[in-house]
Amino acid sequence: MARLADYFVLVAFGPHPRGSGEGQGQILQRFPEKDWEDNPFPQGIELFCQPSGWQLCPERSPPTFFVAVLTDINSERHYCACLTFWEPAEPTQEAASAEDAADGEEELEDGGRMRLSPSAPAPASQLFAPKTLVLVSRLDHTEVFRNSLGLIYTVHVEGLDVSLESVIGNLLTCTIPLAGGSQRTISLGAGDRQVIQTPLTDSLPVSCCSVALLFRQLGITNVLCLFCAALTEHKILFLSRSYQRLADACRGLLALLFPLRYSFTYVPILPAQLLEVLSTPTPFVIGVHAAFQAETQELLDVIIADLDGGTVTVPECVHIPPLPEPLQSQTHSVLSTVLDPELELADLAFPPPTVPASSLKMQDKELRAVFLRLFAQLLQGYRWCLHIVRIHPEPVIRFHKAAFLGQRGLVEDDFLMKVLEGMAFAGFVSERGVPYRATDLFDELVAHEVARMRADESHPQRVLRHVKELAEQLYKNENPYPAVAMHKVQRPAEASHLRRAPRPFPRLDEGTVQWIVDQAMAKMQGAPPAVRAERRSTVPSGPPMTAILERSSGLHANSARRLEVVRNCISYVFEGKMLEAKKLLPAVLRALKGRAARRCLTQELHLHVQQNRAVLDHQQFDFVVRMMNCCLQDCTSADEHGIAAALLPLVTAFCRKLSPGVTQFAYSCVQEHVVWSTPQFWEAMFYGDVQTHVRALYLEPPEDRPPTQVGEALAQEEPPSALDVASEQRRLWPTLSRAKQQELVQKEESTVFSQAIHYASRMSYLLLPLDASKSRLLRERAGLGDPESASNSLVTNSMAGSVAESYDTESGFEDAETSDVAGAVVRFINRFVDKVCTESGVTSDHLKGLHVMVPDIVQMHIETLEAVHRESRRLPPIQKQPKLLRPRLLPGEECVLDGLRVYLLPDGREEGAGGSAGGPALLPAEGAVFLTTYRVIFTGMPTDPLVGEQVVVRAFPVAALTKEKRISVQTHVDQFLQDGLQLRACTFQLLRMAFDEEVGSEGAELFRKQLHRLRYPPDIKGTFAFASGATHTPGRPGRAAKDKGPSLRTLSRNLMKNAKRTIGRQHITRKKYSPPSWEHRGQPPAEDQEDEIAVSEEAEPSTLTPSAGLKPADRLTLSSLVERACCRDYQRLGLGTLGSSLSRAKSEPFRVSPVNRMYAICRSYPGLLIVPQSVQDNALQRVSRCYRQNRFPVVCWRSGRSKAVLLRSGGLHGKGVVGLFKAQNAPSPGQSQADSSSLEQEKYLQAVVSAMPRYADASGRNTLSGFSSAHLGSHAPRARVTTLSNPMAASASRWTAPRGKWGSIRVSGRSGGPGVGVDVGSRLAGRDVLGPPQPNGAPPDSGFLRPQRAALYIIGDKAQLKGVRPDPLQQWELVPIEVFEARQVKASFKKLLKACVPGCPAAEPGPASYLRSLEDSEWLTQIHKLLQVSVLVVELLDSGSSVLVSLEDGWDITTQVVSLVQLLSDPFYRTLEGFRLLVEKEWLSFGHRFSHRGAHMLAGQSSGVVPIFLQFLDCVHQVHLQFPMEFEFSQFYLKFLSYHHASRRFRTFLLDSDYERIELGLLYEEKGERRGQQACRSVWEHVDRLSKKTPVFYNYMYAPEDAEVLRPYSNVSNLKVWDFYTEETLAEGPPYDWELARGPPEPPEEERPDSSAPQSRRRVVWPCYDSRPRAQPDAISRLLEELQRLETELGRPPERWKDTWDRVKAAQRLEGRPDGRGTPGSLLASTVPHHRRSLGVYLQEGPAGSTLSLSLDSDQSGGSSASSSRQAARRSTSALYSQFQTAESENRSYEGTLYKKGAFMKPWKARWFVLDKTKHQLRYYDHRVDTECKGVIDLAEVEAVAPGAPTMGAPKTVGEKAFFDVKTTRRVYNFCAQDAASAQQWVDRIQGCLSDA
What we know:
The chain is α+β, with helices and mostly antiparallel strands and about 1900 residues long. Helices cover about 35% and strands about 15% of the residues. The chain is built from 54 helices and 44 strands. The longest helix is centred in the middle third of the chain and has 30 residues, at about 740-765. The radius of gyration is 49 Å and the shape is elongated.
């Protein structure tokens, strides 16, 4: 609602103060007397009441009325309605007039009324003085004002019985709506009634009849001329003798300009005293009374429109550009039809009956509709050229004029160019560019009716119909209620002004009027404010723009053929077909004269840029640069067609390498174009890019929303435009919290700032010439040689040397030196930065920072260009074929076949060939294949030149070769390649090669033969591990050994002799060794390395002393055996002592037996074995006959808690214990038919059971296989399943009864596979289940083990134990299970290889075929079974029962199971040392047949590779994934062993048993003096050496729990495919030969030698090419590297990483400093509850300098049982997850947000403060959940806490009492709280702390 009238003023004639010949207006009274707060009283009303001056008249004239317009300082218009009448002059006025007349000035005025002069004496009749009633309003209701003032005059003249005060009071208190189409009836209390209609939309102007009158007075041509003049900012002056006509004409002209608003001087009626205003230099629209026409003749640049004479005079010096054709003629034609409807019918022979002409009001709207259509056609598609630069806090919108003109085809049009550059259009953009606002008729028209207008152009009747429709809407807007009731307003009688008035206009009672106003105000305040809800919506953009008139470009009209020529030429250039490209180049350069061909060129070039870079060779570079220059030479400075804009990213992408480290980019060759020095071009580009980034800022979140319905999804296929995004954001803005609003504003500001930096670099690229001596070029360009220097004060002193001085020079015309160039460029960039940043709302701090950075950017670029310029003058010749790249070799590795030139072809893996995932096409690559004694290596470079000079390396160990296949290949490289070879390795590498023609078939065949010879040597001595690096002949004894007794080599020989003597009827040589017939050989790929076989020198002195009863030779053998890995482990487990039967310690249940020391009983067992104390050595020979390969049950591990033991053996022979168990009763002495060995075997098992500590409780036990609800866990409740997204969910389900934990990485949607069956065997065999299984492979709820259990469970093959009925009286129980055989492992592995490394692309690309082939391989199913059996055994052992694993021959699956069981049960084996010991004991000493399974020799070629060990490592990897904090070694360690167990680089994994290793003299050879001379032959020794240099094998998350038993989930859904199978790094080949790795790809920036090119910290990391851990190491590795680098810089010897790490952990255990300051090693302690531990959390790898909040745990020994130490360990280990905790802690006495003033010259910032009474500190953090403390104020240093005062930059919204200061001994801290109350509370709390202390 708004007041109808703001002020009522009574102005009368008064004498001029200086006694000039005129009077002046005097304000007699005004109401209200006080100014309104929202609308001050306008000054100068007296002048506008009588624009021609105040004079007395000799006769009484009729009252006059007009409306003058005043514009205030805020550009708001005030409408002053003036009703003037004449009253008899008072004597004082007459006297004053007479004096004035004596001055002798006379003049005709106002239609010929005479002013008195001495020559015409005053008649006797009285003079009359004018008096004016003025109504001041901000609303434009002319008729209402005329009626209201007329009513007041009528009341006065006719003497009506109505109080004038009440009428005026009512007038001043009348309120009406602004818009909305409402109707309001008002009455002023004099029996009157008026109806006011408000327009529907206040944005549309109200014109009544003014436009129609204007056309009637001036005609079509003149009005069009004035219309164009107003739009192109010319001065327009109207002349008329009628003030009201002047006002109407001005109003009509402005109505025609809609939707543009006139923003210059607008005075419809100019008073005579202000005529000098006409000389103003700015444009205006002014109306002047015709009486002053003579005074306007001197105006040379003013267009004068004489309304009374109907003429428009345009001075000669003024050029008014006409409307662009065809719009000019179309508009003229439609206007004439509207004004004269009969014009079309005038020539008809039989004219139809005349159509009644439109009313004047309707005609007015029709004329306006024509101009509305005109603007819609002119501005069609304008919204597509809007750039949204900022959305919040207020939209900042810029218009891309050049693009608009270019796309409309109006580049040359003077009219539109001037309109777009005018103030009115700038206002239009800022007002109508807003994406979310109320829309009106013009928005609808320009968005939806453009197509109709184009279609109607040639149909005048349809155009007229459209005009009439628009006119109806315009009319409806002004007159929403057509049938409105008539006004009823009293008027004075005819000629009432001639009657003698009863009295002059009375002086009104101010008090009465004021009282009425006050009363109304009181009512208004009580009533709720009537706010009209503005209906805002997204403004429609309409269809994309089209040219107004399609002009053909004549000679250069682009046909499809021309575009095809351009495309072909570019494709030839990039395919390297230079001759073809040269042929086409002249045609291309001709075609590029056309705009479409230039666009085509930019699009084609964009297709050849990958990852923002395209490296070309020299010829390609020259071609591309020539075409770019041709494109740019026809670009104007405005770049209307966007060609330069499209080329800008390309000129910084295309480059060529001039020399190592020097790259020349295309921008250095395309600088000679005017567009680069045009500020408008850079601004438009900048705003366009900012819009793209701001849009992207808001497009990210919607991706997380739930999927929409199908209909919506189809509708939203097209991504929203920037305007749509901005509209949505503006709609949401009021709903956002203040903090969120601030965050968005900051993000946008940062976006603009980062783009400004980016553009400063871009501009320096294109403005600085390659040769600094070319600086004349810069000065010739527009703007660069400008003498003004923008922001010099900010630029100076920011650069070194003479360059900085030149920035201060003001001339800009020094000698052409580098400094001059730099200075000019810096000034140009600074001007650009100032403009765009100010317009985009960048903070002043950021702007200052930019000014400091610009000179540095320019100088850095100048230095880069110097090197480029130097190198570009000596370009190297282009090589035809790449030279062969020689690979790096290991020490001892020799080349067998030098490089054979081959092409490495893509295989079925997409990544290398740039498949659906994108990336560079690294394959096919051209290079050479090398065959060495150790590896097959391909090195080469991609054939695709766009990939650049990337070296491609693919290699694998010769020993890993599993299959070779000949292929015949035709590639897309030039020649047809006949011979090809596909090599597949068990380390998951595939070489698919095609030999070059120069190699020939003989060369290819030689390669195959040599490869075969190296892969299958006839003897183990032919492998790389033996042949490489030997510094002495192996058989030669060491000299120093003579006086020290027999050497180890002699010992080995003696041992072998003794063994062969003792073995008797057993086989003597390895060659006669007969493995079981069902076995198939194979070999697993290994990946990480472990410790060496030989005992390390640091091993503890053995406590197993040989007894005196042994022979001296045996004693020496025994002392060597004692130092083996298994013995050290037995000692650690406390499994008995070594001694003869006489000296046995009876208290120990088990003993170490040396019975196999000569390997006489079992050649595949170690020399020392753990057997029950009660069994004699001579009985073991008989027991061993019952088992395959004589592998009888021996103890390999004992639980430290339950004392249960784990035994292993081979499977049973047909007779023996099986027959024994089939008997109904226990064997009695009378049953002599029982085989003696079976009896021995029974006794042996009985002895094992007797040795169990819980044997006495075994009576009445329940059998395991008898339960229908058999269960793997003892009495565990449901295992918890927790994911990272809900770390708190785990707390409730933490259980304590069985120690250990179930794996809890991910929730599976399906319930687990095989569950509980009738017996455990069937359950493990995967049969149907009875009990409900848990998801993720956890056991069901019901317990299956009662408190009484069998003392011993025997896990055996189901087929072998078929039909066995266990006797309930026995203490042991059989658990038959089905396991896979070695041949199934071999078949599964073959399928796995083909799934992970396919030889050719899949028939149906995508993940589905890969997953299908992975499932077909059944590899994960086998992993699942292994883990399932292992978890069963772990549960049995944990419950106190012993377990004997007796499967197959006891050296494959048995080894896998017992190793996994020990790993899960004993934390020691999860350390680096323990895992080495586990592998040495269970795999090497207990005789896993590595050579046989890996087909190492020629004899094993037919058996193939059976990767049993790899399968075990995969199981460990699965457990590692589920429990990442329980392993000291990393995943890389496992991959390292997987690779090298198959590589034959080390001797560790060669041969099949300790017996064979001793026979070859391997086992003890590394002891003695010769050890140091040899190359590293043990994988463990290699790992040790590497671990001293790098933490690559170490797991930083290692934080074990004491004696923790792991129970991993084993369902296939919980298993992950090991990335060892799928990943590769083509940059350097497999990363497991560490010496060959290139180290970090680039040195840190500080270490780089100074080069001219600026080095970026950013680096592109390509999948399948780069090693990501190497390119982006995890944060702790990065910190350790940084420490080493800093130590080196300081000249100290670098400390070993492990020492640093251990010191940091120790320091943290001693003191958990909560402030987190100090070295990067002092990491945050935390108090996370313990239940968060076993979540599978992976250490996030971040960029350099990441801050880590990890707590490091000590290596707690497993034996610690004190609850306090365990609790302490748990508390510190759980702190690893401090990133998940909130900032609460028990030490936070009080906390909240305070603003803190930074140190000197720093701003105020909001921080989260924590008052800690315990530590007597005031800490602060960035925000509430931040765990890293940013600073600490020690309260011990605080001297006083006092109220403070606000300083500069303080928050403005808080009161002064919210500030307080804390004064310490060092400085004064200034704080600001949210309000005074919270400030007081902080002060009280801090003082309370001080007083407590």
